[in-house]
Amino acid sequence: MSKVTESKKASTNVSISDVARHAEVSLGTVSRVLNRHPSVASELRKKVLASSRSLGFVPKVAHRCVAVITGRYSPAMPIGYVSAMTSLVSQELAKRGLAVELIDIENIELAYEAHIDAVVGIVFDDRLSELTSIPNLPLITINKPMTEQGISSVYADHYEQAKKATEYLIAQGHRDIGFMEIEPGEWGSEQRTQAFKDALTNAGITVDPLRICYTTQQPVYDILSRWCQRDVTAILNFSEDVSLEVLHILSNVLGKKIGSDISTISLEDVPIYQYLSPPQTVVKQPMAEMAKIAVEHILNQVAERSNDILDIKLDTQLIERDSVNTLNQ
Q1: Residue 278: is the preceding peptide bond cis (ω within 30°)?
Q2: One fold for 3-55 and 158-285
Q3: How does pLDDT run across 301-329, given as a tens digit for each residue?
Q4: What CATH architecture does domain 65-156+287-316 belong to?
Q5: Quick one: which of 78, 268, 272, 317 has the most CB atoms within 10 Å?
Q6: Domain regions of the chain by residue span
Q7: Pick the CATH number of 158-285 from 3.20.20.140, 3.10.560.10, 2.60.120.1140, 3.40.50.2300
Q8: Model-level pTM?
Q9: Alpha carbon 113 to chain centroid, angstroms
Protein backbone atom coordinates (compact mmCIF):
# COMPACT_ATOMS: atom_id res chain seq x y z
CA MET A 1 0.00 0.00 0.00
CA SER A 2 1.37 3.44 -0.93
CA LYS A 3 2.01 6.19 1.61
CA VAL A 4 -0.66 8.34 -0.03
CA THR A 5 -3.26 5.62 0.37
CA GLU A 6 -2.22 4.99 3.97
CA SER A 7 -2.49 8.70 4.74
CA LYS A 8 -5.96 8.95 3.26
CA LYS A 9 -7.11 5.88 5.12
CA ALA A 10 -5.76 7.23 8.39
CA SER A 11 -7.47 10.59 7.90
CA THR A 12 -10.93 8.96 8.02
CA ASN A 13 -10.36 8.31 11.75
CA VAL A 14 -9.54 11.93 12.56
CA SER A 15 -12.18 13.67 14.63
CA ILE A 16 -12.96 17.22 15.66
CA SER A 17 -11.38 16.39 19.04
CA ASP A 18 -8.09 15.57 17.31
CA VAL A 19 -8.18 18.94 15.55
CA ALA A 20 -8.82 20.71 18.86
CA ARG A 21 -5.88 18.98 20.53
CA HIS A 22 -3.58 19.67 17.58
CA ALA A 23 -4.53 23.36 17.48
CA GLU A 24 -4.55 23.60 21.29
CA VAL A 25 -8.03 25.08 21.38
CA SER A 26 -11.43 24.02 22.70
CA LEU A 27 -13.98 21.91 20.83
CA GLY A 28 -16.27 24.93 20.78
CA THR A 29 -13.64 27.01 18.99
CA VAL A 30 -13.16 24.35 16.33
CA SER A 31 -16.92 24.14 15.85
CA ARG A 32 -17.23 27.90 15.44
CA VAL A 33 -14.38 27.96 12.91
CA LEU A 34 -15.83 25.12 10.84
CA ASN A 35 -19.24 26.81 10.85
CA ARG A 36 -17.70 30.16 9.83
CA HIS A 37 -18.86 32.00 12.93
CA PRO A 38 -17.94 35.69 12.62
CA SER A 39 -16.77 36.00 16.24
CA VAL A 40 -13.58 33.98 15.66
CA ALA A 41 -10.43 36.06 15.18
CA SER A 42 -8.68 35.72 11.84
CA GLU A 43 -5.39 34.32 13.19
CA LEU A 44 -7.20 31.78 15.35
CA ARG A 45 -9.33 30.71 12.41
CA LYS A 46 -6.21 30.17 10.28
CA LYS A 47 -4.57 28.14 13.09
CA VAL A 48 -7.55 25.79 13.40
CA LEU A 49 -7.94 25.35 9.65
CA ALA A 50 -4.20 24.65 9.31
CA SER A 51 -4.46 21.93 11.95
CA SER A 52 -7.51 20.48 10.22
CA ARG A 53 -5.64 20.30 6.93
CA SER A 54 -2.48 18.90 8.54
CA LEU A 55 -4.46 16.05 10.05
CA GLY A 56 -6.43 15.43 6.86
CA PHE A 57 -9.73 16.20 8.57
CA VAL A 58 -12.55 16.95 6.14
CA PRO A 59 -15.54 18.42 7.97
CA LYS A 60 -19.04 17.55 6.84
CA VAL A 61 -20.30 21.11 6.75
CA ALA A 62 -23.08 22.14 4.39
CA HIS A 63 -22.34 25.60 3.03
CA ARG A 64 -25.15 27.54 1.44
CA CYS A 65 -24.87 27.34 -2.33
CA VAL A 66 -26.51 29.40 -5.07
CA ALA A 67 -26.55 28.17 -8.66
CA VAL A 68 -25.91 30.65 -11.46
CA ILE A 69 -27.44 29.45 -14.72
CA THR A 70 -25.31 30.61 -17.65
CA GLY A 71 -24.88 29.98 -21.36
CA ARG A 72 -24.09 31.56 -24.71
CA TYR A 73 -20.44 32.27 -24.08
CA SER A 74 -18.65 33.89 -26.98
CA PRO A 75 -14.98 33.02 -27.71
CA ALA A 76 -14.84 36.20 -29.82
CA MET A 77 -15.92 38.34 -26.88
CA PRO A 78 -14.94 36.56 -23.62
CA ILE A 79 -15.52 39.81 -21.73
CA GLY A 80 -19.07 40.19 -23.03
CA TYR A 81 -22.37 40.31 -21.16
CA VAL A 82 -22.62 36.71 -19.94
CA SER A 83 -19.06 36.58 -18.62
CA ALA A 84 -19.30 40.00 -17.00
CA MET A 85 -22.65 39.30 -15.32
CA THR A 86 -21.48 35.86 -14.14
CA SER A 87 -18.50 37.53 -12.49
CA LEU A 88 -20.60 40.27 -10.86
CA VAL A 89 -23.18 37.86 -9.43
CA SER A 90 -20.42 35.53 -8.18
CA GLN A 91 -18.68 38.45 -6.45
CA GLU A 92 -21.91 39.50 -4.71
CA LEU A 93 -22.49 35.95 -3.48
CA ALA A 94 -18.87 35.50 -2.38
CA LYS A 95 -18.98 38.74 -0.36
CA ARG A 96 -21.83 37.18 1.62
CA GLY A 97 -19.94 33.94 2.25
CA LEU A 98 -21.94 31.76 -0.14
CA ALA A 99 -20.65 29.08 -2.45
CA VAL A 100 -21.36 29.53 -6.17
CA GLU A 101 -22.11 26.72 -8.59
CA LEU A 102 -22.06 27.59 -12.29
CA ILE A 103 -24.51 25.53 -14.33
CA ASP A 104 -24.77 25.74 -18.09
CA ILE A 105 -28.34 25.93 -19.35
CA GLU A 106 -27.74 22.67 -21.22
CA ASN A 107 -27.22 20.97 -17.82
CA ILE A 108 -30.11 22.67 -16.07
CA GLU A 109 -31.15 19.44 -14.33
CA LEU A 110 -28.20 19.95 -11.94
CA ALA A 111 -30.23 22.69 -10.27
CA TYR A 112 -32.55 19.98 -8.92
CA GLU A 113 -29.84 18.78 -6.49
CA ALA A 114 -30.72 19.33 -2.84
CA HIS A 115 -27.61 21.36 -1.94
CA ILE A 116 -28.74 24.22 -4.23
CA ASP A 117 -30.45 26.85 -2.06
CA ALA A 118 -31.45 29.25 -4.85
CA VAL A 119 -30.95 30.02 -8.54
CA VAL A 120 -29.95 33.15 -10.41
CA GLY A 121 -30.54 32.92 -14.17
CA ILE A 122 -28.44 35.16 -16.41
CA VAL A 123 -29.09 33.40 -19.69
CA PHE A 124 -31.98 34.36 -21.96
CA ASP A 125 -33.72 31.00 -22.13
CA ASP A 126 -37.32 29.98 -21.45
CA ARG A 127 -36.10 26.66 -20.03
CA LEU A 128 -35.51 28.52 -16.77
CA SER A 129 -39.26 28.22 -16.16
CA GLU A 130 -38.77 24.45 -15.66
CA LEU A 131 -37.23 25.24 -12.29
CA THR A 132 -40.51 26.58 -10.90
CA SER A 133 -41.58 22.97 -10.37
CA ILE A 134 -38.82 22.43 -7.80
CA PRO A 135 -40.11 22.93 -4.24
CA ASN A 136 -38.42 25.45 -1.94
CA LEU A 137 -36.14 26.83 -4.65
CA PRO A 138 -36.17 30.65 -4.96
CA LEU A 139 -35.50 31.88 -8.50
CA ILE A 140 -34.62 35.19 -10.10
CA THR A 141 -33.65 36.14 -13.64
CA ILE A 142 -31.49 39.03 -14.82
CA ASN A 143 -32.35 40.81 -18.09
CA LYS A 144 -35.11 38.37 -18.99
CA PRO A 145 -38.48 39.29 -17.45
CA MET A 146 -40.27 36.10 -16.37
CA THR A 147 -42.72 37.37 -13.77
CA GLU A 148 -45.63 35.96 -15.76
CA GLN A 149 -44.08 32.53 -15.23
CA GLY A 150 -43.82 33.18 -11.49
CA ILE A 151 -40.10 34.06 -11.48
CA SER A 152 -38.69 37.23 -9.94
CA SER A 153 -36.95 39.44 -12.48
CA VAL A 154 -34.60 42.42 -12.51
CA TYR A 155 -33.73 43.91 -15.87
CA ALA A 156 -32.56 46.98 -17.75
CA ASP A 157 -34.99 48.97 -19.88
CA HIS A 158 -34.04 47.56 -23.29
CA TYR A 159 -36.56 49.67 -25.18
CA GLU A 160 -35.04 52.82 -23.72
CA GLN A 161 -31.53 51.62 -24.64
CA ALA A 162 -32.26 51.66 -28.35
CA LYS A 163 -34.48 54.73 -28.15
CA LYS A 164 -31.75 56.84 -26.51
CA ALA A 165 -29.06 55.65 -28.90
CA THR A 166 -31.15 56.07 -32.05
CA GLU A 167 -32.39 59.53 -31.07
CA TYR A 168 -28.82 60.55 -30.28
CA LEU A 169 -27.63 59.50 -33.75
CA ILE A 170 -30.53 61.31 -35.37
CA ALA A 171 -29.70 64.44 -33.35
CA GLN A 172 -26.16 64.26 -34.79
CA GLY A 173 -27.62 64.37 -38.30
CA HIS A 174 -27.64 60.64 -39.11
CA ARG A 175 -30.57 59.27 -41.09
CA ASP A 176 -28.95 56.22 -42.70
CA ILE A 177 -28.45 54.01 -39.67
CA GLY A 178 -27.68 50.30 -39.54
CA PHE A 179 -29.08 48.36 -36.57
CA MET A 180 -27.37 45.15 -35.44
CA GLU A 181 -28.71 42.56 -32.99
CA ILE A 182 -27.64 39.03 -32.02
CA GLU A 183 -30.80 37.13 -32.91
CA PRO A 184 -34.51 37.73 -33.37
CA GLY A 185 -37.09 36.43 -30.95
CA GLU A 186 -35.38 37.25 -27.67
CA TRP A 187 -37.19 39.67 -25.37
CA GLY A 188 -34.35 42.20 -25.30
CA SER A 189 -33.80 42.01 -29.04
CA GLU A 190 -37.48 42.60 -29.77
CA GLN A 191 -37.66 45.54 -27.34
CA ARG A 192 -34.65 47.27 -28.88
CA THR A 193 -35.67 46.57 -32.48
CA GLN A 194 -39.11 48.07 -31.87
CA ALA A 195 -37.58 51.13 -30.21
CA PHE A 196 -35.24 51.62 -33.18
CA LYS A 197 -38.18 51.52 -35.59
CA ASP A 198 -40.27 53.85 -33.44
CA ALA A 199 -37.46 56.41 -33.11
CA LEU A 200 -36.95 56.48 -36.88
CA THR A 201 -40.67 56.78 -37.57
CA ASN A 202 -41.08 59.59 -35.03
CA ALA A 203 -38.26 61.47 -36.81
CA GLY A 204 -39.93 61.01 -40.20
CA ILE A 205 -37.34 58.48 -41.40
CA THR A 206 -38.51 55.45 -43.35
CA VAL A 207 -37.60 52.11 -41.74
CA ASP A 208 -35.53 50.02 -44.17
CA PRO A 209 -35.72 46.28 -43.24
CA LEU A 210 -32.33 45.73 -44.91
CA ARG A 211 -30.75 47.91 -42.25
CA ILE A 212 -31.87 45.65 -39.41
CA CYS A 213 -29.60 42.59 -39.25
CA TYR A 214 -28.89 39.71 -36.86
CA THR A 215 -25.39 38.32 -36.42
CA THR A 216 -26.62 34.77 -35.86
CA GLN A 217 -28.14 34.84 -39.35
CA GLN A 218 -25.45 36.54 -41.43
CA PRO A 219 -21.65 36.89 -41.28
CA VAL A 220 -20.61 40.20 -39.75
CA TYR A 221 -18.42 41.08 -42.74
CA ASP A 222 -21.33 40.61 -45.16
CA ILE A 223 -23.56 42.90 -43.11
CA LEU A 224 -20.99 45.65 -42.80
CA SER A 225 -19.74 45.59 -46.38
CA ARG A 226 -23.33 45.76 -47.70
CA TRP A 227 -24.18 48.67 -45.40
CA CYS A 228 -21.05 50.59 -46.39
CA GLN A 229 -21.92 50.12 -50.07
CA ARG A 230 -25.36 51.58 -49.35
CA ASP A 231 -24.02 54.70 -47.62
CA VAL A 232 -24.91 53.87 -44.04
CA THR A 233 -23.37 56.65 -41.92
CA ALA A 234 -23.85 55.15 -38.46
CA ILE A 235 -24.09 51.69 -36.90
CA LEU A 236 -25.95 50.91 -33.72
CA ASN A 237 -24.50 47.59 -32.51
CA PHE A 238 -26.46 45.72 -29.87
CA SER A 239 -24.77 42.43 -30.76
CA GLU A 240 -22.14 42.91 -28.06
CA ASP A 241 -20.48 39.54 -28.65
CA VAL A 242 -19.13 40.80 -31.98
CA SER A 243 -18.39 44.40 -31.01
CA LEU A 244 -14.62 44.13 -31.42
CA GLU A 245 -15.07 42.20 -34.66
CA VAL A 246 -17.28 44.99 -36.01
CA LEU A 247 -14.72 47.65 -35.16
CA HIS A 248 -11.89 45.58 -36.66
CA ILE A 249 -13.71 44.97 -39.96
CA LEU A 250 -14.76 48.59 -40.33
CA SER A 251 -11.28 49.95 -39.60
CA ASN A 252 -8.85 47.36 -40.91
CA VAL A 253 -10.76 45.55 -43.64
CA LEU A 254 -13.14 48.10 -45.09
CA GLY A 255 -10.81 51.02 -44.42
CA LYS A 256 -13.33 53.20 -42.64
CA LYS A 257 -12.24 55.77 -40.07
CA ILE A 258 -14.58 55.41 -37.11
CA GLY A 259 -15.85 58.72 -35.83
CA SER A 260 -15.30 60.31 -39.23
CA ASP A 261 -16.21 58.07 -42.18
CA ILE A 262 -18.69 56.11 -40.11
CA SER A 263 -20.10 56.39 -36.59
CA THR A 264 -20.62 53.56 -34.12
CA ILE A 265 -22.37 52.98 -30.82
CA SER A 266 -21.72 49.73 -28.92
CA LEU A 267 -23.53 47.99 -26.06
CA GLU A 268 -21.97 47.65 -22.58
CA ASP A 269 -19.30 49.89 -21.14
CA VAL A 270 -16.50 47.32 -21.32
CA PRO A 271 -13.35 49.05 -19.97
CA ILE A 272 -11.40 48.46 -23.20
CA TYR A 273 -13.82 50.68 -25.15
CA GLN A 274 -12.52 53.89 -23.61
CA TYR A 275 -8.96 53.02 -24.67
CA LEU A 276 -9.75 52.31 -28.32
CA SER A 277 -9.03 54.87 -31.01
CA PRO A 278 -11.40 56.59 -31.00
CA PRO A 279 -12.99 55.82 -27.60
CA GLN A 280 -16.37 54.21 -28.14
CA THR A 281 -19.72 55.81 -27.43
CA VAL A 282 -21.68 53.14 -25.57
CA VAL A 283 -25.03 52.23 -24.06
CA LYS A 284 -24.33 51.22 -20.46
CA GLN A 285 -26.54 48.83 -18.55
CA PRO A 286 -26.53 48.99 -14.70
CA MET A 287 -24.99 45.52 -14.49
CA ALA A 288 -23.48 45.81 -11.00
CA GLU A 289 -26.76 47.15 -9.62
CA MET A 290 -28.75 44.33 -11.24
CA ALA A 291 -26.38 41.73 -9.77
CA LYS A 292 -26.65 43.24 -6.28
CA ILE A 293 -30.45 43.48 -6.37
CA ALA A 294 -30.75 39.89 -7.64
CA VAL A 295 -28.51 38.46 -4.92
CA GLU A 296 -30.11 40.47 -2.10
CA HIS A 297 -33.60 39.44 -3.17
CA ILE A 298 -32.78 35.76 -3.59
CA LEU A 299 -31.11 35.60 -0.17
CA ASN A 300 -34.10 37.30 1.45
CA GLN A 301 -36.32 34.67 -0.11
CA VAL A 302 -34.10 31.90 1.26
CA ALA A 303 -34.04 33.39 4.76
CA GLU A 304 -37.73 34.21 4.97
CA ARG A 305 -39.03 31.40 2.74
CA SER A 306 -40.93 34.13 0.91
CA ASN A 307 -42.66 33.61 -2.42
CA ASP A 308 -42.89 37.32 -3.28
CA ILE A 309 -42.30 37.99 -6.99
CA LEU A 310 -39.92 40.87 -7.71
CA ASP A 311 -40.28 42.92 -10.90
CA ILE A 312 -37.71 45.72 -11.22
CA LYS A 313 -36.83 47.64 -14.38
CA LEU A 314 -33.73 49.87 -14.26
CA ASP A 315 -32.70 52.80 -16.44
CA THR A 316 -29.70 52.71 -18.76
CA GLN A 317 -27.19 55.37 -19.71
CA LEU A 318 -25.71 56.65 -22.97
CA ILE A 319 -22.04 57.53 -22.53
CA GLU A 320 -20.80 59.92 -25.21
CA ARG A 321 -17.24 59.55 -26.43
CA ASP A 322 -15.62 60.08 -29.85
CA SER A 323 -16.98 57.35 -32.13
CA VAL A 324 -19.98 59.37 -33.36
CA ASN A 325 -19.49 62.10 -35.94
CA THR A 326 -21.82 65.11 -36.23
CA LEU A 327 -23.03 65.49 -39.82
CA ASN A 328 -23.98 68.75 -41.48
CA GLN A 329 -27.72 69.17 -41.08
Answers
A1: yes
A2: no
A3: 888 877 789 999 999 999 999 999 999 75
A4: 3-Layer(aba) Sandwich (3.40)
A5: 268
A6: 3-55, 65-156+287-316, 158-285
A7: 3.40.50.2300
A8: 0.81
A9: 23
